[in-house]
Amino acid sequence: MTRDQVDARIRAIAEPFNKKGVEIDEDTTFAGDLEFDSLTVMDFVAAIEDEFDIIISMNQQAEIESWGDLVDTVAKMASQ
Amino acid sequence: MSEGVSQPDQPQALAGEGRDLFSKFDPLIAMREGLLAGGQEDPFNLVMEKVLSPTRAICNGRDTILLGTYNYMGMTFDEDVIAAGKQALDEFGSGTTGSRVLNGTYQGHKECEDALREFYAMDHAMVFSTGYQANLGIISTIAGKGDYIVLDIDSHASIWDGCKLGDAEVVPFKHNDIEAMDKRLGRIPEGAGKLVILEGVYSMLGDVAPLKEMVAVAKKHGAMVLVDEAHSMGFIGEHGRGVCEAAGVIDDCDFIIGTFSKSVGTVGGFCVSNHPKFEIMRLVCRPYVFTASLPPSVVATAATSIRKLMHGSNKRAHLWENSKRLHGGLKALGFQLGTETPQSAIVAVIMPDLERGAMMWEALLKEGLYVNLARPPATPANMTLLRCSLCAEHSAEEVETVLGMFERAGKAVGIIEG
């Protein structure tokens, strides 16, 4: 799976959570720009985990700040 | 004298006007001030001037029914418990001034652990100075770097802090969601250590976990299981061992964590286990080693109380009656509750928002009723809750009085229709 394909799949998952319709680019942050609270993060992460059959621990989540970080992390895990 | 003396050795001000390490608390300070500006009594600063019994106290000069304590079994004023504490105070002094592994293990600590082993019918028991430290210590010591902890998202703060201290990979799942838990366990890399952490009763809404199914799933994946039974000990299960006993899975639980500060009626925490190597925990568990042990009077009251709780089936039955009556009565009055059915000694009343929650809390206090006001971030889904926790010593009449108070206050504040 290419990075672009991973990006597209996560983008589809993110849509229902992006209630304000914020435009997403590589530098978009989850806490700041998308205003995800902890419960939203849990549901969003769970949906990504199910889509890619991976596990993103909270320790790993702490390293993810921007959209680009997330796509990188998921692309790496999905290729393993 | 060096020139250093007349010069500051650090920059005098942090960047940003008037900002320091406390600036991060500004939003919370503002919220509190906003709440109190309305002439409200401070819900988080109540002082009980006198405590008359497990169910009554004088608060702000008023005789108040206590419906927001964790004194589920009403043991705090039990004659035998108090006598044991007084005797230990006389015979062993006011404190141990030392760690359990140095000079802080007295006869009373051993007797308390004996009482716990008998209560749970388990091989090992380890007493900590608080329930918080029991979770902090056990979790952080058994699940370290490279291990995986799978836990419910609504877990208690002491569980989260234990996860963080141990540096394990932390994987939460949606509250009480068996399938979500199953999936996450299935994705853990092969060979990694696995610990599943569950609670018997979740204290905010008073709901119980489907432990029968969850423990089976955990075992299917080869995980160890730790269950925090803080809010069920003494009350739920035939012998009061908790939800894991009621669900018939206690033998599959590797560790049960509990506290003395609820049904037992004093302070302290513990872990019981049948693991053959459990005793090594006494040497490697830092929150056990690096703190002073409980005072002799505390372990003496705990041991006496635990032994009495073994024979508490009549009290358990009365507490269930109280819980059912309060739950049913509040529901009939039109309040929205945290659970559809009464599941524990906790009945959570959901408030529309923090402001009206605080108003309702104050109205109840003026009626002569104390309940817990719980607010985000301690609550699930950012709810504001009035948490009622019942006691086996509440009389049936007191529960009726409480319902009358809720009805009047609820109508006055506009939570229910008048």
What report would you give on this structure?
With 80 residues, chain A is mainly alpha-helical. Chain A has a single domain, classed as Non-ribosomal Peptide Synthetase Peptidyl Carrier Protein, Chain A. Chain A is built from four helices and no strands. In chain A, helix 1 crosses helix 2 and helix 1 packs across helix 4. Chain A is globular and about 35 Å long. The relative contact order of chain A is 0.20. The model of chain A has no long low-confidence stretch (mean pLDDT 93). By secondary structure, chain B is of the alpha/beta class. Chain B has two domains: 135 residues, Alpha-Beta Complex (Aspartate Aminotransferase, domain 1); 231 residues, Aspartate Aminotransferase, domain 2 (3-Layer(aba) Sandwich), CATH 3.40.640.10. In chain B, strands 4-12-11-10-7-5-6 form a seven-stranded mixed sheet, sandwiched between helices. In chain B, strands 1-2-3-14 form a four-stranded mixed sheet. A three-stranded antiparallel sheet of chain B has the order 13-16-15. In chain B, helix 6 packs parallel to helix 7, helix 12 runs parallel beside helix 14 and helix 13 packs across helix 14. The model of chain B has no long low-confidence stretch (mean pLDDT 94). The interface between A and B is medium-sized, with 15 and 17 residues.
Strand and helix map with partners:
The complex is a heterodimer of chains A (80) and B (418).
Chain A: H1 3-14, H2 38-52, H3 58-63, H4 67-78
Chain B: H1 26-37, E1 48-53, E2 56-59, E3 62-66, H2 79-92, H3 107-120, E4 124-128, H4 131-142, E5 148-152, H5 157-166, E6 169-173, H6 178-186, E7 194-199, E8 201-202, E9 207-208, H7 211-220, E10 224-228, H8 243-246, E11 255-259, E12 269-273, H9 281-284, H10 286-289, H11 296-309, H12 313-333, E13 346-351, H13 354-367, E14 369-370, E15 372-374, E16 384-389, H14 396-413
